[in-house]
Amino acid sequence: MKFDNKYLPIVIGGIFALGVLIGSLSSPSSTNSFLSKRNTKEKLNKLIDFIDSEYVDDVNTDSIVSLTVNSILAKLDPHSVYIPPSEQAEIAETMKGDFVGIGINFYMHNDSVAVINPVKNGPSAKAGIKAGDRILYAGKTKLYGRKLPNDSLFAKLKGEVGSKIELTVYRKAERKKMKITIKRDVIPLKSVDVALRLDNTTGYIKINRFAETTFDEFHKALISLKKQGIKSLVVDLRDNGGGYMEEAIAIADEFLKDKELIVFTKSTKEPTEKTYATAEGDFETGSLFVLINENSASASEILAGAIQDNDRGTVVGRRSFGKGLVQREMDFKDGSAVRLTIARYYTPTGRCIQKSYAKGGNEEYFKESDSRFLHGELYKKDSIKVVDSLKFKTKKGKIVYGGGGIIPDVFVPLEAEHGVENVSYLLQSGIVGHFVFEELDKKRKVFTKLTFEQFKTKINETDLYFTAFQKYLTKNGLKIDLANYKPLVKRYVNAEFARQLYGDVYYYQMVLKDDTMIKAVLKEEAKLKDLK
Q1: Options 298, 320, 336, 369, the catalytic residue
Q2: Which GO cellular component does the record give, naming just one (predicted)?
């Protein structure tokens, strides 16, 4: 499995043996170079052993090794990274697409584990856990009043498939405490958030990352939408930071015709590798739109670039992040891993969309997206900086640029124009979910009696929760005046109420109704219909 192209273990012993062989057959200068490198490695190992055995104080040599590895990788590029064991286990689980647990969404509210929602059809839902429940004990382990970190909580709730755990739960709505036994099971981690129809003929699929299960999730969603009669499709890659390249390629193959180039990679160590579409594909005709923004990166850019360069569809939004490097992962016995950049990938026209990392170090590199606020790029397409020497042409002669992300065909500015630039991101953060949970907690019985249509009418008519959210932010130390963004704030707050009460589909129905990128798509779609 590749991670943004290559995901293969590196066999250290084999490489070392090969190096010895080459050294013995090379010229004296090559042999000297090899011996010099070997001496440097031995020097590093000898130093760490010396510190471990002789240093005056106790020293965690593992931390020294981690510092050394991080320092070495930092000299290479921003995406060659060391991942410690604790983080690697979590990342691997996320990219795998599932885990074994009890199936709840929760957060710590006033030192209690509060259930935001049980996963639909998951173990907790089947056992009778409800939104708003507080989990007091997991077995005999007390969970409330301890300020336990999330990783400790997860460890208590996870286990083997089929194993049982008894939870002591307090149900605030009924003011009673109860014991509920739950049998742990495999819980899917969705990478496709939702698939729905925007209108009778336009489908919408939101992909949050490219994990092992993404193509299967996407394909299932696509087939379902086709059965509902869609003729056009919107693929939403906003805020999708990437993941496995194979999954993005497989999705691109659904849209492109046989033998159309999807992506190719170049490396000084390996031959150029080209990947083409196959004859199979379930949406090779029909209008296609891909949504991107400044946080769409890596595998997202591979998919968007393949669609744009083959003139297959329309890319809508704002310039993407600009990651055109390929990593290969090497795992260590302690559970840690290194992701090393081993190639660059190129879109079908020959673009490498990797942005520069030559100046300022890794911190400045990752802050580059933030700097787009300052020079107005998120509000005006004319402010996007392009490099004329990196100009390319698609099959139909459309000009596209390399060297810094995918520039959309149709530009859509950030909704929260000037002033408080981070409002849009704030509204999609966890704080909105926490606020809504606490509001629902005050009168959950009233809300659960409403149908979705009744709820939507009532909540859209009032400013009560807009005002309450403004107070909530102030109470939590966020001094942001939302007065100029009332429609935007109400849309996301009200949609979060819908998510917690009725599910993800209802959240997206409310959010997308006035989404500026979706409006731009529908406008472009109308133009295409007029041309026909």
Answers
A1: 298
A2: outer membrane-bounded periplasmic space
